């Protein structure tokens, strides 16, 4: 399901956007999850990396949509951003914050549908190139590109995601993590022992009873060795290492 946020202080304009999204869903037999916010500060407060598309009004109380967009890009550089404005010249600055498009007010369904279709295509293309997992860490929810995870380690009841951007700790079972990642990327993550779940994309080599992942050496247990080596052969034999 595509998750959408609408940041709009005008009730009538908000209703028009919600109606356009609902009409598009009926026309194309699709479902969308829509959350609305009255101003940009409320939108950014406790922001979660769960939205695929954000519709942002430019003229809003407290802080303009452009100002909010600049702050949004500091925490989420990837979300598809579409400005909604009454004047096209205001939308020129939208490209400074990597906005995907803009829609003129009053919102007309035909114009909306054309731009919305473009946005959906971009979101889906990005989803094919990247798979993201939401990690409920002790500091909050963190959106992580699966390709940036080197391996996942469990210590007692804490799992540690070792990523390109540092370690992230979460209170979860390794089995749940294994199932979640398996649903996203199939057999790309494999256990080398009961404590480590390895991203084969980052595997450098195996050496005796160890596997080198990034800069770390992880123990391959005797009970997992055959299954682990078979998984490596299947993954790279199928072109997964390309």
UniProtKB/TrEMBL annotation:
Response regulatory domain residues: 3-120
GO molecular function terms noted in the UniProt entry: DNA binding; phosphorelay response regulator activity
Domain (HTH LytTR-type) ranges: 133-234
Top-level taxon of the source organism: Bacteria
Function: May play the central regulatory role in sporulation. It may be an element of the effector pathway responsible for the activation of sporulation genes in response to nutritional stress. Spo0A may act in concert with spo0H (a sigma factor) to control the expression of some genes that are critical to the sporulation process.
Annotated TM spans: none
Annotated protein name in UniProt: Stage 0 sporulation protein A homolog
InterPro entries attached to this UniProt entry: CheY-like_superfamily, LytR-like, LytTR_DNA-bd_dom, Sig_transdc_resp-reg_receiver
Keywords, in A-Z order: Phosphoprotein
Residues found modified as 4-aspartylphosphate: 57
């Amino acid at each position: 399901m595509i998750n959408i946020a609408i940041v709009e202080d005008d009730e009538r304009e908000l209703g028009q956007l919600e109606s356009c999204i609902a009409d598009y869903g009926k026309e194309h037999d699709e479902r969308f999850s829509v959350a609305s916010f009255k101003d940009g500060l409320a939108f950014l407060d406790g922001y979660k990396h769960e939205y695929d598309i954000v519709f942002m009004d430019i003229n809003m109380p407290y802080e303009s949509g452009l100002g909010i967009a600049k702050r949004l890009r500091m925490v989420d550089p990837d979300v598809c951003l579409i400005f909604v404005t009454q004047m096209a010249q205001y939308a020129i600055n939208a490209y400074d914050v990597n906005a995907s498009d803009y829609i003129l007010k009053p919102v007309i369904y035909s114009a909306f549908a054309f731009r919305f279709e473009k946005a959906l295509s971009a979101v889906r293309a990005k989803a094919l190139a990247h798979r993201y997992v939401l990690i409920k860490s002790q500091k909050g929810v963190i959106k992580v590109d699966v390709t940036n995870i080197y391996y996942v380690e469990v210590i007692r009841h804490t799992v540690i995601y070792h990523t390109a951007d540092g370690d992230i700790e979460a209170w979860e079972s390794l089995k749940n993590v294994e199932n979640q990642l398996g649903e996203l990327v199939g057999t790309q993550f494999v256990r080398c022992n009961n404590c480590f779940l390895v991203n084969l994309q980052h595997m450098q080599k195996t050496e005796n009873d160890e596997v080198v992942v990034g800069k770390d050496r992880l123990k391959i247990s005797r009970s997992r060795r055959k299954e682990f080596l078979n998984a490596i052969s299947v993954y790279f034999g199928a072109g997964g290492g390309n």
